[in-house]
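Holo prediction. Input below; ligand is 4'-deoxy-4'-aminopyridoxal-5'-phosphate.
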Amino acid sequence: MLSKKGMGVSPSPTMLIDAKAKEMISQGLDVIGFGAGEPDFDTPSHIQEAAIKAINEGHTRYTPAAGTLELKQAICRKLKTDNALEYDPSQIVVSNGAKHSLFNSLAALLNPGDEVLIPAPYWVSYPELVKLNDGIPVIVKASKDNNLKVTAGDLKNALSAKTKALLLNSPSNPTGQVYSKDELKAICDVCCEHNIYVVSDEIYEKLLYDEAIHYSIASFNEKIKELTIVVNGVSKSYAMTGWRIGYTASTAEIAKVMAAIQSHTASNPNSIAQKATLAALDESQKCVGEMLVAFDERRKYMCERIKNIPGLDALTPRGTFYLFVDLSGVIGKSFQGKTLEGCDDFAGQLLESRKVAIVPGSGFGAPNYVRLSFATSMDNIIKGLDRLEAFVNDLQ
Ligand code: PMP
Ligand code: GLU
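Structure of the complex:
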C-alpha cells in the first residue's frame, strides 16, 4: 500500500484547471482561461538580464541552503522599508516559491495532531499542506456580511487546547479582500493571548486597489513578531511564477529548523533565480506599478460586468487579481435539462459548452462560489465575459 498521507492529498485544483485549459488550447480549442493565478506579463527585462548575467558570471553552483547572504540582506531591507519589520539575515529562509515556504513553516511548527486554524474561503493548498505535516486543519468560516473575512471572535470560538497556529492570508486568494489594521490588531490580540503562531501569507501585498493598505500582522508588537512566520515571495508582484523564489521571516530559532529541513529536502533555491530576485527587490519598482495599473483597469471592468449579470454577485476585490463570484442566484437552475447542483457543475458546463475556464469554489471551501482571475488580457476578459453572460442567460 502506498503512503496513506500521500494518498490523502488531493491535487491542486487551481493547477489542474489551468493545465486543462492550456491542454484544450494546445488542441486548437478556443478556450478563454480565467483559471490561472499568475500574472500574464513577462518578467520585467531588468530581472531577466540579471539572471543572464548570473549565468554568464558562473553563479551556477549550490548556494547556502537558506539562500545567499546578499539576497537575505536584500529581503531584510525590503521588510524594513515595506513592512516596518526589522530582521537579521539569520532570520530569513529563501525557498523554492512561497508554497515551499509555507510547507517549511508548517513542517517547523507542527507536531502530530496540532490544529491549524484556516479561515474559509481559503487558498486551495492550505488544508493539504497542514495534513502533509501531520496537522489537523480547522476551518473557520467567514461570513459574507463581513466580506468573507473572519473576525477575532470567529477565531476565538474555534480555539481548542490543540490549536497551534493560524494560517492568515491578506490580501486573500480567492476573495480579493484585505484585512484592515483594526481587524488584524484584534486577531493579533487573540493570538498573543493564547500563544498561537501565525503563518502570515503576504504574497499579494503589492497588489492593492482603491484605498487598501497592507499591514503585516508581525509589525504590531514584539510578541506577535515572535509568534509570526511572514511568508512572501516574488511570484505575483514581479511576474516571476516560474522562477520559484519565496521566503520567510521568523525568529532565528524557527528559521534554523526550516533551513535544516530544506537542506535535506531541496538543498538550496535556484542560484540564478536568487540573483534575479535580488534585482527584483533592489532595483526600480516601476514595473510593479505598471502591472498594477493594468490589473486595476481589468478589475473594474470585470466587477461591473459580473454585477450586471442577473443571478451573479461579487465582492469588489481590494487586492490580488481574483474576483470571487457568488452563484447562489443560479445554483439549482438547469442547463440543457441538467440541474446545476453546485459550483462544480456550473464550472464544468461552462467549460464544456462555452469554452470558458474558471475555478470552482469547492476547492476554496466555498461551494457556492467560483473564482475568476483577471490576470489575463482585456480582450480575453471581454470575450470570456460575453460567453459567461450568454451561458447564464441560457439557464432555466
Ligand atoms: N500563497 C497564495 C495565497 C497563493 O495564491 C500562491 C500562488 N501560487 C502561493 C502562496 C504560492 O506562491 P509561489 O508561486 O511563490 O509558490
Ligand atoms: N496560486 C495560484 C492560484 O491560486 C497558482 C496555482 C497554485 O499554485 O495553486 O491559482
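The two ends are 47 Å apart (CA to CA). That is the main takeaway for now.
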